[in-house]
Design a protein that fits this description.
Elements: H1 13-18, H2 20-51, H3 61-80, H4 82-87, H5 89-110, H6 118-129, H7 134-155, H8 158-208, H9 218-230, E1 238-244, H10 247-254, H11 256-274, E2 295-300, E3 303-308, H12 314-329, E4 332-333, E5 336-337, E6 341-347, H13 355-371, E7 377-379
Parallel strand pairs: 6-7
Antiparallel strand pairs: 1-3, 1-6, 2-3, 4-5
């Protein structure tokens, strides 16, 4: 079991990294908020400088104008390229921290006759706003405070610099504790959210598959195939309905347990013959994104449905379906001597806006297979209107 780490706010590194996307998004949002506030403050000070109000003289205009320009450029980057800002999370965060702390240090230098306040406020804000890890945040805070105190002793009298030292040590100590507490709470919320999402995904997967065969259930099968058809793919696709022959007799004569075993065997055979073993455990939402991967589902009872992709001609599809039928016919267990099935097949045409028309044609073809003697494959004849 992986140990919890103080560096990751009392959680394991693995748990912390699972939340990395949400952490990056949160940091980007907080950066935007702080930067907007920073722009407004500079704009206000710029007005004070221009009007010589509150002891802010016109000599400061270039300083506030420069930081205002930097803030606006940074804001544009955050707004226009949010994904880039999130991808380069540490660059975004450190740029913000460096900009804010340097601003606080310079404002302290500009007022050497009084203890600094702006730097301490900005130090607190950055510590409470950004999630990184404790080692990085402590290091950044110590470096920032070190530069601040160095300039304080260089530009201020000893008594005021000493006062800055006292205030900085107290605030920095509080900042470390608050940073750990606040960010631990946030990470905890992220982890709970991730667990909820995982539970929802697992429930979605379970509700999408037939419990007996692990094939897609009726609803999910049609949802995925509809999505594929909406993508306007030009690939050759066929739809096949497979219905077991004399399945009622198996249940009546050999028992329902044998009937369930037959259904399971058919499911395993379809998965193997279609070559979709490795896709069964994948997220449902990614199935329709897999190029030329066939899909199999159970409609209910002894009826199955196949959405066959990756073949180029009717002959190739027929060969695949014949292999499926041969495999089922060769099944031998207990008192069962082969599984027989009838298959109705149709090609998906460019006029098929949804799966319904193709399903009707395949169903008619299935009826023809049954009428012709069962345990065989029948292709529908597709007319120009898309009906069988």
């Amino acid at each position: 079991m992986t140990a919890r780490s103080f560096n990751y706010y009392g959680y394991t590194k693995e748990s912390y990294m699972e939340c990395s996307e949400m952490i990056r998004t949160t940091n980007r949002k907080h950066t935007t908020i702080l930067n907007t506030w920073f722009i407004l403050i500079n704009l206000l000070y710029l007005v004070f400088s221009y009007l010589n109000l509150f002891g802010v003289n016109q000599e400061r205009i270039p300083f506030y104008a420069a930081y205002l320009l930097v803030g606006i450029i940074f804001e544009l980057w955050l707004t226009v390229f949010p994904k880039t800002a999130e991808k380069h999370n540490y660059i975004t965060v450190f740029s913000s921290i460096i900009g804010l702390l340097s601003y606080g240090i310079l404002t302290s230098i500009f007022a050497p006759y009084m203890p600094a306040t702006m730097f301490l406020v900005l130090l607190s804000l950055t510590a409470l706003s950004y999630i990184g890890n404790m080692a990085i945040m402590i290091s950044v805070s110590i470096v920032g405070v070190g530069i601040f105190l160095t300039t304080s002793y260089l530009y201020k009298t000893f008594s005021i610099a000493y006062n800055d030292t006292y205030n900085a040590v107290v605030v920095m100590t509080l900042v470390f504790g608050l940073h750990y507490t606040f960010q631990r709470t946030r990470v905890s919320q992220f982890i709970l959210y991730q667990r909820d999402l995982q539970i929802q995904r697992e429930l979605e997967i379970k509700s999408s598959f037939d419990a007996l065969t692990t094939l897609l259930n009726r609803g999910r099968f049609f949802a995925i195939t509809e999505e594929i058809l909406r993508s306007k793919t030009n690939e050759y696709i066929t739809l096949c309905i497979l219905d077991l022959d004399e399945f009622k007799g198996i249940n009546d004569n050999l028992g329902h347990q044998m009937g369930d075993k037959v259904i399971q065997t058919v499911g395993k055979t379809l998965i193997k013959q279609l070559g979709i073993e490795s896709y069964i455990s994948e997220m449902i939402s990614s199935w329709d994104l897999k190029p030329k991967i066939s899909i199999a589902g159970r409609l209910g009872g002894d009826e199955f449905i196949l959405f066959i992709r990756g073949k180029k001609t009717q002959d190739e599809v027929r060969e695949l379906l014949q292999n499926i039928l041969d495999s089922l016919n060769k099944v031998q267990f207990d008192r069962l001597n082969g599984i027989h099935a009838s298959l109705g097949v149709t090609e998906i045409t460019s006029t098929d806006r949804d799966i319904d028309n193709a399903y009707k044609r395949a169903d008619i073809a299935l009826y023809e297979s049954k009428r012709a003697g069962k345990n065989q494959i029948h292709f529908s004849t597709v007319t120009t209107t898309g009906d069988a």
